[in-house]
Amino acid sequence: MKWKTRIIYLLMGIFLTVVAWVTALEYVSYDVEHYMTEFEKQDWVPQAGMDRENLKHTAEEIILYLQGEKEDFQTMAVKGGIYQPLFDERERLHMIDVLELYDSARLLRNISIIGLLLLLAWVVYQDNKWKNRVLRTLFFTGLANVDMMILLGLLIWLDFTKYFTYFHLLLFDNDLWILNPQHHVLIQLLPESFFINTAIKIGLYAMGSLFALGIIAWQLEKMLFRYQAIRNEHS
């Protein structure tokens, strides 16, 4: 196989990985039950001064904002027995930055889908062994994502706080992400443990789907090889 063809199949695997991880990111971060489960795990219902109904309302408002369905991040809810705005200016400005990251991720995912389809059309037209090579690409993409999940787990196990800080320093050009848990409701509701569990869940969904796809592709490739061998014997 020529090096240009190898690069094309490598790009297909990368595009597929981007699609899977961004889709998993959206699936988890748009799931209100995920938030409620994490709130209850951390016993944030009494600590945040909000009952379950108001916590669910707040989670739904966060989701709407991340989906681009809500212009302002501000949310009104009952906290400490008082119906009040939950977030101050610092939290709202930080979430503008977060929304920009989500918009960028969605754009990258959409570009990856288009790129994947274009490359698939190219290999079907240009490569007479495209069926075998596409299946093999799916298999190795699945294996590569298992490695990515192991790396993610290792970083979390070693020092999540350290690498989570690096993540923020890399992606944000300000310090608005540094919030005070004594004053800021956002970090009260979404502490570090929330992000640890969310990252693991996203990784498991993305890796699991690609690994399952890779196993299916591996089995299909074996069947294809047998079919091709039988066909060559009778030709």
UniProtKB/TrEMBL annotation:
InterPro entries: Lit
Keyword set includes Transmembrane helix: yes
Domain of life per record: Bacteria
Transmembrane segments: 7-30, 107-125, 137-158, 194-218
Annotated keywords: Membrane, Transmembrane, Transmembrane helix
NCBIfam families, A to Z: integ_TIGR01906
Protein name from the UniProt record: Integral membrane protein TIGR01906
